[in-house]
């Protein structure tokens, strides 16, 4: 195992240990919400009410076998949506500390990038910059070669490619750090931002980020399925060929090969153009981008100081975006 892989491995192990003591017992919640006759029941979880529907193993298999991930059961909960920007203190205490996903509606619409990032503007301004590429099905074993942005803009409507790379410092001037991230606990450990760009109809592998993640949709629409790390064993995480990335085919889940996936409960978020969604650190998630031009920026930060050691940093956002 390389030193980088080894460090990543132990980061994951330590993060799981840290999270285990603070995660809510969703299995217990699901059991308390179920009824003996298999019908829906309305449950109270903090301030949010949601419905959990229970199925037999046979029903789960029939619903989910060789079908897209999440078909085996409905989501336990639709992720909470806030129609306004939340304060840093409330965001940190109500969501980050509790590992609770949330969608903030319209939070990206005041970014300069929201209006500026047309194909013409990007080609004129950043066309000669090199970016890393991936395939639309997120194949980690066949990584396409990097290319200049102007080359990508000429092919992305037809090619099996999407751009995934760190946001260059010049482009970062057109991103405004959200108000909810401007507190010491978050800002002190903020370290990287990533840019996703495609023609849509892309589907990520189910994976985890070892960092807290605010996924910001500049253009397009995404659906995000999120799974608590307590279901890692049911997702066969230990047998994955790539650490933190599952081998399960999200487009056609083989429940004969991976029968425990039937046990997995998940949350669902719909993230429209101009919205952002908080994905808690170490939560498994699958992101589907609908057909059409898609641009997103992920803002990642470390929520635990001991996880920050040895991790590279990006050039910070301009100070005037933190005023």
Automatic annotation (TrEMBL):
Stored SUPFAM superfamilies: Clavaminate synthase-like
Origin superkingdom: Eukaryota
Signal sequence annotation: none
Matches recorded under InterPro entries: Cupin_8, JmjC_dom
Record's protein name: Uncharacterized protein
């Amino acid at each position: 195992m390389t030193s980088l892989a080894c460090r990543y491995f132990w980061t994951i192990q330590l993060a799981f240990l840290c999270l285990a003591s603070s995660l809510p017992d969703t299995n217990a919640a699901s059991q308390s919400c179920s009824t003996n006759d298999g019908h829906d029941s309305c449950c109270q979880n903090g301030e949010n009410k949601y419905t959990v529907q229970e199925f037999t193993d046979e029903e789960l298999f029939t619903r989910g076998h060789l079908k897209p991930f999440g078909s085996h059961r409905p989501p336990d909960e639709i992720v909470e949506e806030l129609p306004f920007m939340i304060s840093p203190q409330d965001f940190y205490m109500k969501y980050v500390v509790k590992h609770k996903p949330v969608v903030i509606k319209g939070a990206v619409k005041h970014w300069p990038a929201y209006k500026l990032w047309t194909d013409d503007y990007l080609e004129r301004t950043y066309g000669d910059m090199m970016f890393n590429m991936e395939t639309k099905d997120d194949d980690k074993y066949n990584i396409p070669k990097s290319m200049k942005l102007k080359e990508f803009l000429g092919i992305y409507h037809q090619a099996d490619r999407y751009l995934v790379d760190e946001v260059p410092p010049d482009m970062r001037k057109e991103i405004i750090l959200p108000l909810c991230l401007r507190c010491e606990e978050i800002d002190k450990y903020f370290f990287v931002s990533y840019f996703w760009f495609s023609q849509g109809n892309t589907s990520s592998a189910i994976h985890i980020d070892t960092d807290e993640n605010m996924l910001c949709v500049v253009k397009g629409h995404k659906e995000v399925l999120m799974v608590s790390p307590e279901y890692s064993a049911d997702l066969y995480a230990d047998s994955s060929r790539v650490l933190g990335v599952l081998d399960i085919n999200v487009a056609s889940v083989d429940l004969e090969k991976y029968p425990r996936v039937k046990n997995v409960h998940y949350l669902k978020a719909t993230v429209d153009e101009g919205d952002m969604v908080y994905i808690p650190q170490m939560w498994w998630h699958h992101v589907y981008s609908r057909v059409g031009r898609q641009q997103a920026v992920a803002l990642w930060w470390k929520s635990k100081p001991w996880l920050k050691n040895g991790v590279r940093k990006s050039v910070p956002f301009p100070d005037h975006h933190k005023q």
